[in-house]
């Protein structure tokens, strides 16, 4: 199973991608996470990506496509792509790469949420600086404020989660990524999923959409 997860910042792509990866035993390829790991380890790619990420802009297509192409080759036969593609050019590049491998996508799932709800989710997001466990101070109560319940590490906010940067990321999503909805709908691969509600409710909708896509795939 090879799936693309689309959606604005804060829609819950990372949350749902991790759940799908666990449930179906597939890999989770998240471009934002790969860029952040490169920033942390001080690579040239990380230094380049940071200038774009901190401003809420997209990292250039050529750099991103080359990085994902490598990740796909290293992955198993099944994966969920979280945060890629983000432009129609990236979508075309992915199509060509998968066609050459003879391994097409099963579907593209777009999580939908309005901008204000997305900003609310993101403003509550914190990550443990030590063990990387995710938290949300808006939705998930912590045992002690500012400290990881599991390892006691400090909880930090992503630099690009400041509200002005989040608003810019949302604009970039509407301008550059939303055209991909048409791109995948024209190919019969798109399913839109309401991302409101609890994480479990969204997972149920995502799994139902995947089951429906796979039954369409079997019939055709
Ligand atoms: P990336 O890391 O991909 O960020 P994003 O797309 O902006 O998405 P987020 O991680 O903010 O949100 P999400 O949808 O994953 O939601 P999450 O599950 O965390 O990209 C960062 C940057 O990298 C980009 O701006 C760009 O610069 C660069 N980049 C990445 N990919 C690129 C590409 N392909 N091309 C070019 N540049 C690229 O949830 C958010 C919060 O809400 C969490 O706290 C979570 O706990 C909570 N939450 C989730 N679901 C629910 C729910 N149902 N109810 C309540 N809370 C919930």
Number of strands: 8
The largest sheet is: 5 strands, parallel
Strand content range: 15-25%
Overall average pLDDT: 93
* Tally of alpha and pi helices: 9
List of distinct ligands in this structure: BIS(adenosine)-5'-pentaphosphate
Give the C-alpha Rg. Answer: 17 Å
Question: Which structural class should the secondary elements be placed in?
Answer: alpha/beta
Distance between the termini: 16 Å
Helix content: 40-55%
| Low-pLDDT runs | none
Explain this structure:
There is one protein chain. 51% of the residues lie in helices and 15% in strands. The protein has 220 residues and is α/β, with parallel strands linked by helices. The strands form two sheets. Strands 2-3-1-4-8 form a five-stranded parallel β-sheet, sandwiched between helices. The chain has a three-stranded antiparallel β-sheet with strand order 6-5-7. Strand 5 and strand 6 (134-136) form a beta hairpin. Helix 2 (31-40) crosses helix 3 (44-53) and helix 4 runs parallel beside helix 5 (88-101). It is globular. Bound molecules: BIS(adenosine)-5'-pentaphosphate.
């Amino acid at each position: 199973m090879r799936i693309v997860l689309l959606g604005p910042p804060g829609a819950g792509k990372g949350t749902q991608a991790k759940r799908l990866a666990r449930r179906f035993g597939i890999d989770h390829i998240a471009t934002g996470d790969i860029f952040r790991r490169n920033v942390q380890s001080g690579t040239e790619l990380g230094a380049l990506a940071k200038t774009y990420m901190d401003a809420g802009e997209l990292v250039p297509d050529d750099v991103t496509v080359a990085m994902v192409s490598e990740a796909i080759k290293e992955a198993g036969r099944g994966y969920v792509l979280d945060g890629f593609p983000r432009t129609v050019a990236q979508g075309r590049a992915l199509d060509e790469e998968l066609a050459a491998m003879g391994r097409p996508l099963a579907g593209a799932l777009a999580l939908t949420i309005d901008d204000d709800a997305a900003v609310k989710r993101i403003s509550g997001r914190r990550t443990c600086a030590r063990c990387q466990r995710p938290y949300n101070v808006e939705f998930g109560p912590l045992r002690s404020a500012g400290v990881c319940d599991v390892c006691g590490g400090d909880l930090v906010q992503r630099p690009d989660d400041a509200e002005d940067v989040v608003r810019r990321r949302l604009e970039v999503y509407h301008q550059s990524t939303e055209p991909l909805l048409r791109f995948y709908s024209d190919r019969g691969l798109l399913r839109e999923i309401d991302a409101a509600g609890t994480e479990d409710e969204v997972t149920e909708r995502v799994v139902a959409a995947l089951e429906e896509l796979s039954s369409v795939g079997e019939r055709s």
